[in-house]
Amino acid sequence: HILDFELGATESTETAKGLLARLARRGFAPADGGRLLVGLDGSAALKSAVLSYWPDAVIQRCLVHKERNVRRFLRRKDWKELAGHFDRLRKAQGLVAGQEALKELEQFLKERNQAALESLREAGDELLALHRLEVPATLHVSLLSTNLIEGPFRNMRRKLERVSRWRAETDQASRWLAYGLLEAERGFRRLRHAEDLGALRLALRRPQKAIGE
Fold it and tell me: What are the tens digits of pLDDT across the range 12-32?
């Protein structure tokens, strides 16, 4: 479901916090005893806003965006091999396999371009957040990228591409965006391998504290 949207600059922390503040007021929160899994494209503003409301959120960096960022530092002839490394990372089951795939990717980049390696390492532990939860790799298809929201954006733009006049002094922009997003939502389907979401819910439970902590 589309939960909400906010008009404003993409990289504005205040814009992001405005959106999340409204969601929080409406009662959006993880289930009792659970943490939130958040897929982000690398936006520092969004990350800051998320952690200000849900400090223990598990943040997964979008591998599609990261691959795209890394690729711009490489020669075109290396792109296919880069894609293969990212594909192995996506398919890796669990943390150990994920770390092995990431290590191979780092070695590949180390031999080719230092800037590419630094771009990869910028994401830190967020590249393996889902692997660390040890959930079935079937969920990686949907949850290792931000495609779940990128798709609705594309569909919304198709709906609104003929709109040529936006009257900023009115709420017209909000109305058009709400319409476009609701139309995009009509095409939503059940998450692939939704039968494995129970394992994800269990993995997101907050660790129990020992007596005396």
Answer: 889 999 999 999 999 998 888
Alpha helices in the chain (DSSP H): 13-25, 44-53, 63-71, 79-91, 94-110, 114-121, 129-132, 140-143, 147-160, 172-185, 197-203
Convert the pLDDT of each residue in 94-105 to its tens digit.
999 999 999 999
Q: What is the rounded CA–CA span in Å between residue 100 and residue 88?
A: 10
Say which amino acid occupies 24.
A
> What's the pTM?
0.86
State the maximum Cα–Cα separation within the chain, in Å, rounded to a whole number.
Answer: 63
- What is residue 169's DSSP assignment? T
Task: State how far the Cα of 130 lies from the Cα of 93, in Å rounded to an integer.
Answer: 10
